[in-house]
Design brief:
Elements (H helix, E strand, L loop, with lengths): L1 H41 L2 H28 L2 H24 L5 H29 L5 H29 L2 H21 L16 H18 L1 H22 L1 H8 L4 H25 L5 H21 L5 H29 L5 H30 L1 H21 L1 H4 L12 H9 L1
Helix pairs in contact: 1-2, 1-4, 1-5, 1-6, 2-4, 2-7, 2-13, 3-4, 3-6, 4-13, 5-10, 5-12, 8-13, 8-14, 9-10, 10-12, 11-12, 11-14, 13-14
């Protein structure tokens, strides 16, 4: 398989990546259009919060099961079904909106189903990447993925606003159907290797087999101390950082006395930082030891978040710079860590492991929101940003000082240290 990757990986992966980039644009436009429609139609913060929660549920509760299925079923088929199913959900919304019957509950159902498709598509794409891309290029690919996502955050809102101003909702939603077809088309013509599973599916009780696979995936992560610590770090960072940025509109309006324009500057700075950081990582590739690149990213991200919280009301520019720095360091943090998982975790277990890390981290967002509200009311919104930034930077000490994490680059699947590399790793 290594020879096939080395010879053909750029053409094969490039075709898939281009198609998926179009799909990301369509999904971002749909997300913007639906949120704006809910805002205009209801004007209710509760309904918007409920829509966010509904979109999170599949990834939090079904993620590990989706990952287990991805490890069992042809990953190419899963991506085609996920993209096609998402397009069908959007088509349903188009037909409902066309007849003037669209209600908020229709949007809830659509967001849930689209998130369900994403819960399967994301691990299928990520675990396929490690089968298509040589290990030494995984960090670069992860950086480019982060860059394209950051670009969508910049492009999709104004493009969505423009489209919503010149055409009806159903026509804006129709863009997603076209981009989904562009994502499916290259998948039809490429071959994605499917790793052999250690045990066969019990056809008489497939659900039991999936449950056992989920349990096996959890025990696999639990037994790997370094990977377990990385997952715990992701949980803590998401617990503190995500709620901080959910409070950004209040920080801009109450602390800086700004409006929608100033808020858009903060958002655009973040997106621009992600794009620049992703491209930089794609070109540079990071340090030879991926874990040190992530450590640098975590420190920088924490500094950026703290800058936002420490900026006085008269220095919005400092907060904008902090937002840009946070965005820039995001790919530096996530890209190498995902590259380590893709290169170190057994190929037949990658779907379960990735969704487990993602599910645990995502589950912390609602909990963080519950804590952030009262604490911000008591101590000020800036407090939560400073707290998140300081804790985030402090977490980097784990990457540099804790042996089980610092030597992840030198570990075999399962966490066993490759002894010949230990001396080299200390010397580097």
């Amino acid at each position: 398989m290594t020879e096939t990757i080395n010879k053909n990986w750029k053409t094969t992966f490039g075709a898939i990546w281009a198609g998926q980039s179009f799909s990301l644009l369509g999904s971002a436009l749909v997300q913007f259009a639906l949120v704006w429609w809910l805002t205009q139609t209801t004007g209710s913060a509760t309904i918007l919060a409920m829509a966010t929660l509904v979109a999170l549920l599949p990834q939090v509760f079904l993620g590990p099961f989706a990952g287990a299925i991805v490890d069992r079923v042809n990953r190419k088929v899963i991506m085609i079904v996920a993209d096609g199913g998402t397009a069908l959900v959007t088509l349903g919304l188009v037909l409902i909106a066309w007849n003037g019957l669209l209600q908020p509950w229709h949007v809830y159902v659509a967001m849930f189903l689209r998130s369900l498709g994403s819960a399967f598509h994301w691990p299928a794409m990520q675990s396929s990447t490690s089968l298509l891309v040589p290990d030494e290029h995984l960090s670069r690919v992860a950086g480019l993925n982060q860059a394209i996502q950051g670009a969508m955050n910049i492009v999709a809102p104004p493009l969505g606003a423009l489209l919503m101003s010149v055409m009806d909702l159903q026509w804006v939603l129709s863009v997603d159907i076209i981009t989904a077809l562009l994502a499916i088309l290259p998948l039809i013509f490429v071959v994605i290797p499917q790793p052999k599973h250690e045990t066969e599916m019990d056809t008489s009780s497939p659900f039991k087999t999936i449950l056992l696979d989920v349990k096996e995936g959890f025990l696999y992560v639990w037994a790997w101390k370094g990977l377990m610590m990385v997952m715990a770090m992701a949980v803590v960072i998401n617990l503190l950082i995500n709620p901080a940025f959910a409070l950004m509109p209040l920080l801009v309006s109450k602390h800086f006395g700004g409006g929608a324009l100033e808020f858009s500057w903060m958002e655009s700075a973040m997106g621009a930082g992600v794009v620049i950081g992703g491209v930089a990582l794609g070109v540079w590739g990071g340090f030879k030891r991926k874990v040190f690149t992530s450590g640098l990213g975590i420190i920088g991200m924490g500094i950026g978040v703290a800058m936002i919280g420490l900026a006085p009301s008269s220095l919005l520019g400092l907060a904008i710079a902090g937002s840009c720095l946070t965005g820039f360091m995001n790919p530096m943090t996530n890209g190498p860590l995902f590259a380590i998982i893709q290169s170190k975790v057994d190929k037949e277990k990658q779907g379960r492991v990735m969704t487990m890390v993602s599910s645990f981290a995502t589950a912390m967002t609602p909990i963080g929101m519950i804590l952030a509200g009262p604490l911000s009311d008591k101590f000020g919104i800036q407090f939560w940003f400073v707290l998140g930034g300081v804790v985030c930077s402090a977490m980097a000490l784990v990457l540099f000082l804790v042996r089980e994490v610092a030597t992840l680059d030198d570990q075999e699947p399962g966490g066993k240290l490759i002894e010949p590399l230990l001396t080299a790793s200390v010397a580097e």
